[in-house]
Amino acid sequence: MRELLHRNEQAWALIRRTDQANANLAVFVHGFLGNYLTTWGTLPDLFQRQADQDKDFAPWDFLFLGYKTRAVQTYLDIAKLIITEWNRAETGQRPYDHHYLKLALFGHSLGTLGIRQLLCAWSEQPTTMHGCIHSITLFGTPLNGSSLATFGGWAGGAIGDALKPKNPQLRMLKTWASSAHARQPWPPVRLILGIDDQVVGNEQDELIKWDGDQKPSITTTFDHSTLVKPSAWQSTVVDYIAQGLR
User: Fold this and answer.
1) Which CATH number goes with the domain that contains 192?
2) Which of 56, 57, 119, 191 could disulfide-pair with 216, CB 3.0 to 4.6 Å?
3) What is d(CA 87, CA 162) in angstroms, rounded to the nearest whole number?
4) Could you give the angle at which helices 236-245 and 43-50 cross, rounded to 10 degrees?
């Protein structure tokens, strides 16, 4: 049995079991101008209806976490949002009703850069957080930024500038990630890229190799948006998520 706790004003939704207290929490973080629920299409509804019947999903609860794009200025702002929410979940603070022990991170687009920043920012994390991270899966991650960020339609203040190719924030984060991974490695980062993604691209030789990343998985016929919108439970998107929960 699943219940949906939905707090629209906080851009926050938790799907959790009611018949048992799961100790595992999967957190989903949207991208630039995205939405905490609609970015993921039917995925929240599929979790409510199907998760308990699937052995990979049944032990997990699912948190969809959002933010107002123009209210954040750096990747660190997104990272701190995730850190704050995990601290509440790990310690069983309201509205969580028990303690969580394991964390799986899923990001889309700009949200993936917030997750990468989180992995580096040890001083911002609760003491035990790093050891709780089970997996990291990044959909449509702008490893090189996005050429579309140079057009007026992408105007989003400082965080819009942080998506431009070779921008200072992105260059800084890559260097920070390299140093941090050498000292305290995290689980291998899984990259999921769409072959039709015109926003961040998909060709491997165009991507910057980040320390700790696996070789990217290129999926056919998906663009930047549909990459995280499953058509049904039996779908490529759900399969990729399942791999991050095993």
Assistant:
1) 3.40.50.1820
2) 191
3) 27
4) 60
187: domain range? Answer: 2-245
- Residue 37 near residue 64 (C-beta atoms within 8 A): yes
- Angle between helix axes 110-120 and 75-90 (nearest 10 degrees) is 70
**Integer Cα distance of 41 and 51 in angstroms:** 16
Residue-level length of the chain: 246
Q: What is the pLDDT of residues 107-159, one digit of tens each?
A: 999 999 999 999 999 999 999 999 999 999 999 999 888 877 766 455 567 88
Q: What is the reported pLDDT for 146? A: 85
Residue 203 has pLDDT above 90, yes or no: no
The model scores a pTM over 0.85: yes
Q: Reduced to 3 states, what is the DSSP secondary structure of residue 93?
A: coil
Buried b (16+ CB within 10 A) or exposed e, 82-101: bbebbeebbeeeeebeeebe
Check: CB of residue 162 under 8 Å from CB of residue 78. no
Q: How many domains does the chain have?
A: 1
Alpha carbon distance 12, 76 (integer Å): 19
Rounded mean pLDDT, 7-14: 95
Residue at 209: amino acid letter: K
The CA–CA distances, whole Å, from 23 to 82, 97, 118 equal: 17, 11, 21
Cα–Cα distance for residue pair 49/148, rounded to 1 Å: 37
